[in-house]
């Protein structure tokens, strides 16, 4: 009886300790579990891979540092994919606290692929008024963002000359930790202007994003750390990058953590049901 | 072992450990890190708002280009501060009215189209689905789940017979949905922990590659 009671009342600090041991262990001794790429990730990869590089991809940084472990690797992998294929990139953000992350990642990967600012990529930064920004891009990029993040007039940047509205953007990706994010891009850019959209989302919001795949409103979806790891795998497999795969490094630990949590849930339930029967 | 010599990595690592100390219990180190986080976030937000928006979109057009039309949104924005003055606080209703009016006008048709019309279209069985068996099966299950779940939430009539069975199926679909959401939530929280552990063990202590 006492043992059964114990099963239902494991102190939380013991659970934290068990979890910590099991997630740290694979970081030192990687198991190299295989990566199986989901169709959703592959669809997003293919949507970018099929572009010819004449027109830019728009990336929206809709997250902040709190979601970096899941979303930042996605952002870097997508940038690597675009730059390796000589696809220009325009980056902006709907989250004010994501501006620094967007700029840092863009500079890092542009340097890796020797890309030139203004010609190969532009960073627009952030502006308030989510719907006004998204709808504004459908009317005129230069009116919505007269200058880039560094105060350069867009009319002086060669890449901006190629883009007037969404019709010049064959694909956009919203890397999103919630709202504002992919939902706003779907509601205003996809529904109104027919923009082809892919999304990279945190695992928490992945379940909410799935219905948009079935309806064709999203072209592809990266879900959490697993999605990031799958994209890293594809970018490497197709020879676009040999960079360190930070999301992939964490996937063994992620699998271990899931296993431990499943075991704990089962133990807790067995204890609960046996205890209830005894009473 | 290759410990980082970068001061910012050390600050970041120590703040991470301060936050993790909450796992043991509330303490001054956790509070210190929490306050720093709030302060930095607010300061950063103010700086970006000034440099990315207020200065280029209001100050320059108004004072350097003489676009007096910008006085209208500036005045509406300033009215938000009327909330701090008891006898003027009613004026905050003016900008809120504009925001609500604009927001509703723009959002209602777009959200209705994106989240209801297109989702209904996405739930329908179309001839295109016959091309792939897996998609067809998934769509049939999905459609059945939608109908059952909607019946579960149909309270205008007593549920008995077929509708009761379907409502019970609706509960099962809801439970599966909640389970999937919980699983994803666990995955997300573990990912955040792993991200920090990766930073501590790799970027700070250099214990892993």
Write structural notes for this entry.
The complex is a heterodimer of chains A (279) and B (209). With 279 residues, chain A is of the alpha/beta class. Chain A has helices at 2-8, 12-28, 39-49, 68-84, 99-112, 130-139, 141-144, 158-161, 182-193, 203-214, 224-237, 246-278; strands at 57-62, 89-93, 121-126, 171-176, 197-201, 220-223. Chain A is elongated, with a radius of gyration of 22 Å. Chain B has a domain at 128-209. In chain B, 73% of the residues lie in helices and 0% in strands. Chain B is built from 6 helices and no strands. In chain B, helix 1 crosses helix 2 (28-64) and helix 1 (7-20) packs across helix 6 (162-204).
Concise overview:
In chain A, 56% of the residues lie in helices and 11% in strands. By secondary structure, chain A is of the alpha/beta class.
Q: Features of this protein?
A:
heterodimer, A: 279 residues, alpha/beta, Rossmann fold, 2 domains, six-stranded parallel β-sheet, 56% helix, 11% strand, elongated, B: 209 residues, mainly alpha, 6 helices, 73% helix, 0% strand
């Amino acid at each position: 009886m006492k043992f059964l009671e114990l099963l239902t009342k494991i102190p939380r600090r013991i659970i934290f300790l068990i979890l910590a041991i099991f997630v740290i262990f694979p970081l030192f001794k990687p198991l190299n579990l295989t990566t199986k790429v989901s169709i959703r990730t592959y669809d997003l990869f293919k949507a970018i891979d099929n572009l010819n590089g004449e027109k830019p991809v728009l990336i929206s940084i809709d997250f902040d540092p709190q979601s970096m472990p899941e979303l930042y690797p996605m952002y870097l992998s997508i940038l690597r994919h675009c730059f390796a294929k000589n696809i220009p990139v325009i980056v902006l953000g709907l989250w004010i606290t994501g501006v620094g992350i967007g700029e840092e990642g863009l500079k890092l990967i542009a340097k890796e692929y020797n890309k030139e600012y203004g010609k190969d990529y532009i960073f627009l930064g952030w502006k308030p008024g989510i719907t006004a920004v998204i709808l504004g891009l459908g009317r005129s990029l230069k009116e919505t963002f007269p200058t880039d993040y560094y105060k350069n007039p867009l009319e002086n940047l060669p890449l901006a000359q190629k883009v007037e509205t969404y019709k010049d953007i064959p694909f956009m990706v919203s890397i999103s930790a919630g709202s504002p994010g992919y939902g706003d891009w779907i509601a205003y850019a996809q529904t109104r202007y027919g923009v082809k959209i892919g999304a990279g989302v945190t695992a928490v919001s992945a379940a909410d994003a799935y219905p948009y795949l079935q309806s064709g409103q999203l072209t592809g979806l990266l879900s959490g750390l697993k999605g990031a790891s799958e994209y890293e795998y594809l970018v490497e497999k197709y020879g676009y990058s040999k960079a360190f795969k930070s999301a992939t490094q964490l996937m063994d630990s992620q699998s271990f953590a899931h296993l431990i949590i499943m075991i704990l849930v089962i133990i807790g339930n067995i204890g609960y049901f046996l205890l209830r029967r005894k009473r | 072992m290759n410990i980082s010599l970068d001061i910012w990595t050390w600050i970041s690592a120590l703040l991470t450990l301060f936050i993790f100390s909450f796992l043991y219990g509330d303490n001054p180190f956790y509070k210190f890190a929490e306050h720093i986080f709030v302060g930095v976030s607010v300061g950063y937000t103010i700086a970006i708002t000034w440099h990315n928006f207020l200065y280029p979109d209001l100050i320059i057009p108004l004072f350097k280009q003489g676009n007096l039309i910008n006085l209208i949104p500036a005045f509406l924005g300033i009215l938000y501060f009327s909330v701090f003055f008891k006898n003027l606080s009613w004026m905050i209703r003016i900008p809120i009215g504009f925001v609500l009016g604009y927001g509703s006008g723009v959002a209602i048709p777009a959200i209705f189209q994106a989240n209801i019309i297109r989702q209904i279209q996405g739930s329908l069985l179309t001839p295109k689905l016959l091309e792939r068996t897996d998609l067809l099966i998934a769509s049939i299950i999905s459609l059945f789940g939608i109908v059952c779940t909607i019946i579960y939430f149909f309270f205008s009539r007593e549920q008995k017979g077929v509708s009761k069975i379907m409502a019970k199926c609706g509960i099962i679909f809801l439970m599966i949905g909640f389970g999937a959401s919980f699983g994803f939530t666990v995955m997300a929280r573990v990912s955040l922990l792993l991200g920090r552990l990766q930073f501590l063990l790799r970027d700070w202590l250099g214990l892993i590659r």
